[in-house]
Amino acid sequence: MRALKEENESVTDCHELKIPSKKDGKKYKTDFKKYYYNFLEYKGHENIIYSNNRKKDINNFYYPVIIANYKDKTIYSINPNYFEELKKIHISEKDTKEKILDFFKQCKIDIAIQDMYRMYKKTITNIDISMVTELNDNNKEQYYNSFEHTNDHIYKQKKWETIRKYKYLNGIIEDNKFVSVGFVSNIDENGANIVIQTKEKYRNKGYGKAIVEKISRDLLKHNIIPIYWVNKENKASIKLAQTLDFKKEAEEIVVKIIN
């Protein structure tokens, strides 16, 4: 089922979209191409590039290599610490994944290689988000109640302090506890990475969908691009994003450090 789309005003550049909102009548701009090239640090010339952005964590993990397939281009965005060595072994030629695995194995760094979609949203979707509530100090106890497996107050306090560092925190309360929580883990080059977590018992109720839409609306109001970065094998998550009119814009091979 496709969600209803807002009508977009005609523009010269298809990457620069004006987005009307039914809530306030304002128009927002997104420019995915500009965001993505800046995120990769691609300047339009060399396709194998070193990027200081690959030194930054994304949701507490490090991704030193992103190989992006976008607009008929393959771009290799690499952490400067590994750039020269990876360039020497010709990772842009055949057996790319095997070469990367061998390189990091020699460096004694444990990695996983993942195939990802980078999706983005350019419209407001007409769904009910009234059940979504901002996660703040007023409902801290409901957040604590989410950790039913332990009575350790210090553990719960640490979890609270960790999640409060994130932006655009929203969730849904049921049975006097947060059963689904979403937030923005990173804002890089005007693109915001949305993360959603729902307890298994409460899935397939539309909770994650409502939270992602709420966060997306808040981001678009601030002219920030909602980014949904998802593993290609996660069919349920991809379907959730597509019902909210997220579009698969780039395919990526991603190196994730796991130690």
Structure commentary:
This protein has 259 residues and is of the alpha+beta class. The chain has a domain at 125-227: Gcn5-related N-acetyltransferase (GNAT) (Aminopeptidase), CATH 3.40.630. It is built from seven helices and 13 strands. It has helices spanning 32-40, 80-88, 96-106, 140-144, 153-163, 207-221, 235-243; strands at 16-20, 27-31, 48-50, 57-58, 61-70, 73-78, 111-121, 133-134, 167-174, 177-188, 191-198, 225-231, 246-257. The relative contact order is 0.20. Mean pLDDT is 88; it is low at 1-27.
Gist?
The protein is 27% helix and 35% strand. The protein has helices spanning 32-40, 80-88, 96-106, 140-144, 153-163, 207-221, 235-243, and strands at 16-20, 27-31, 48-50, 57-58, 61-70, 73-78, 111-121, 133-134, 167-174, 177-188, 191-198, 225-231, 246-257.
Keywords:
13 strands; alpha+beta
The CATH class of the domain at 125-227: Alpha Beta
- Radius of gyration from the CA trace? 20 Å
Class based on secondary structure composition and strand pairing:
alpha+beta
Helix content: 25-40%
Give the biggest beta sheet.
Answer: 11 strands, mixed
Report strand %. 35-45%
> Mean pLDDT score, rounded?
88
Instruction: Characterize the overall form.
Output: globular
Query: What's the total helix number?
Result: 7
- What is the strand tally? 13
Query: Which fold name fills CATH's third level, the topology of the domain at 125-227?
Result: Aminopeptidase
The H/E string reads EEHEEEEHHEEHHEEEHEHE
pLDDT under 50 segments (min length 5)?
A: 1-27
How would you name the CATH homologous superfamily of the domain at 125-227?
Answer: Gcn5-related N-acetyltransferase (GNAT)
By CATH, the architecture of the domain at 125-227 is named 3-Layer(aba) Sandwich
What is the terminal-to-terminal distance?
A: 40 Å
